[in-house]
Each structure stands twice: as structure tokens, then as C-alpha cells.
Input
Amino acid sequence: MRLNFEFRRTKSLLKRLLRLWKKYFWNHLVRFNAFLDRKSEFYNWKLSPSQASKEEIEVYEKFIACLGGWKNITGFVAKSKSWHFQLVHEFLVDWEKLNKFDVKILSYDWPILELVSYSYSKWIVKRLRKHTHMPSWVFKRKLRKTTG
Output
């Protein structure tokens, strides 16, 4: 009889310990982990340009298409707050569609088009390069003003 009593006692003690563990440690750990995930979402977006949604990829492709595609762009420089494109032909650029994107035309002095992106310029460029299959020579080329 005494053995049975101690077994019940240890069983109830274990239940209490598990409840206390869950209440005071596990729940806080799960909440803290969810908090960290929410706060680090932007940094994960920055660090992994390959993980983009289909909608995001479509926006990048439409943006490059309204500039005339990569065949129309011969040079591209990305700074922290602005993008500079060197274009071949002006008539290939769809100016009405370009205004629909989250960019402002800073200046256009042919062949250099300067745009100001309102959000995360440097990291969007990484995603733009990856998902629109930017030719490597476009990004490495320096922009030159042609006189003619």
C-alpha cells in the first residue's frame, strides 16, 4: 500500500513539474521565438534574394520589360538611394508603365536614366539581378555619357 501511495505522489509531482515547465518556461520560449521571427523577417528577405514570391518576380520582369529589356540596357549602376541605367534606344522605354512602379525619375539625359527607388534599393538590385537574369557585363560596365 505504501508503494502505491508514493507512486501516485511522484506521478502528481511530475504532472505539476510539467505544468510549471510549460507555464513558466516553454510558453515564454515559444513566444520569444515568434517575436524574433517577426523582427528578423526583413533581414531574412535581404539575405536570401533567391527566395522571392512569384508576384515579386513578375514585378521585376515587368520593370525590366518597360525599360526595353536587358538588350536595351548597356550599363547599370546601383547606389544606396538611386539607380543609373545607360540605355541604347529611348523609344523602347515605356514611360507610362515606368511611372506605375515605386520609382521616381531623377533625371534623364540620354543615354543615362537616373531613378530613385523609394525602398531598399541595394537589396532589390540583388533580387532584380537574380530573377530577371541580368547579363553580368551590364552590371560591371561603367556608365559613359556619349556626345554626338
In short: DSSP finds six helices and four strands in the chain. Residues 2-39 form one domain. The mean pLDDT is 82.
